[in-house]
Design brief:
Length: about 280
């Protein structure tokens, strides 16, 4: 039976798409962004056992070489995440579509939809499709938060199941994108064009990091491309914040308000009609 590897479910979120939504974070990502704010979602657990030694409530145990998490005993202290050198998390759960639907049963009357995030949820595409097909039957909208590295094009069943995508465009420049994420950005731009052409691109996001990225060039080039595609699509400029990041691999200050306003004005000058700073 198909199962998805779920990192966590946030019952109510107002920052993961339109309206009040349940956000579901899947485990595993094919990028390794220097500024990742939840690096514990990047890799799958290799069952090394390190985290079991730091859990104050003994809710992590090794059973036949596999780390086991007792949810009832967990006090969410995050000691396990701090101890893990593998950018992973012992508190993930394999869930069927039916189990996820059951988990949102109580919040369902109060939400407008589901947003799948990660990690990179498109790495578990078959699970995304089957879950969203059920979500749609409940009359909820189905949104995806993606790093854009897996093609959305060429899969009619997938695109029928998804209402819209919130797409990260982390850098316009190929080399800079590789330095930041470890991967190329070619498919990201193909996805951006495709999703805009079928009216399923909800927003583009770019994180502004003063000391390591060419932010002006990025915002200038990305906003020009976006306004050519559809100037009404939201362009979100996100301030880098050094919270939850791996400080051993990134050293940067936060962008100033002036810097963010300047970048916003560049995007507006290039024709984007809906630019926000967060
Ligand atoms: S977050 Fe939970 S599992 Fe992790 S160390 Fe703390 S109590 Fe143990
Ligand atoms: S979560 Fe990390 S530390 Fe814990 S067993 Fe898995 S890889 Fe090891």
């Amino acid at each position: 039976m198909l199962r998805g590897l779920v990192n966590k479910i946030i019952p109510f979120s107002s920052v993961d798409g339109p309206g009040n939504r349940t956000a579901i974070f899947l485990q595993g990502c094919n990028f390794n962004c220097l500024y990742c704010h939840n690096p514990e979602t990047i890799n799958l657990c290799n069952n090394c056992g390190t985290c079991t030694k730091v859990c104050p409530t003994q809710c992590l145990t090794m059973e036949n070489g596999i780390v086991h998490w007792d949810k009832e005993k967990c006090i969410e202290c995050d000691n396990c995440l701090k101890a893990c050198k593998n950018c992973s998390c012992p508190r993930t759960t394999y869930m069927t579509v039916e189990e996820v639907i059951k988990a949102i049963e109580n919040t369902r009357p109060f939400i407008s939809g589901i947003t799948l995030s990660g990690g990179e949820c498109m790495l578990q595409k078959e699970f995304v499709i089957e879950l969203f097909e059920e979500v749609k039957k409940l009359g909820l909208t189905a949104f995806i938060d993606s790093n854009g590295s897996i093609p959305f094009y060429g899969d009619d069943r997938l695109m029928k199941a998804i209402d819209a995508v919130m797409l990260d465009v982390k850098s316009y420049d190929k080399e800079e994108h590789k330095m930041l994420t470890g991967q190329d950005n070619e498919i990201v731009f193909k996805n951006m064009e495709y999703l805009a052409s079928i009216n399923k691109l909800y927003e583009i996001r770019t994180v502004i990091v003063p000391d390591i990225l060419n932010n002006e060039k990025n915002v200038d080039s990305i906003s020009k491309r976006l306004s050519e595609l559809n100037p009404s699509i939201k362009y979100k400029l996100i301030k880098y914040r050094p919270i939850g990041v791996r400080t051993e691999i990134i050293k940067s200050s936060m962008p100033s308000e002036d810097m963010m306003e300047k970048l916003k004005s560049i995007a507006i000058k290039n024709g984007c009609k809906d630019v926000i700073v967060v």
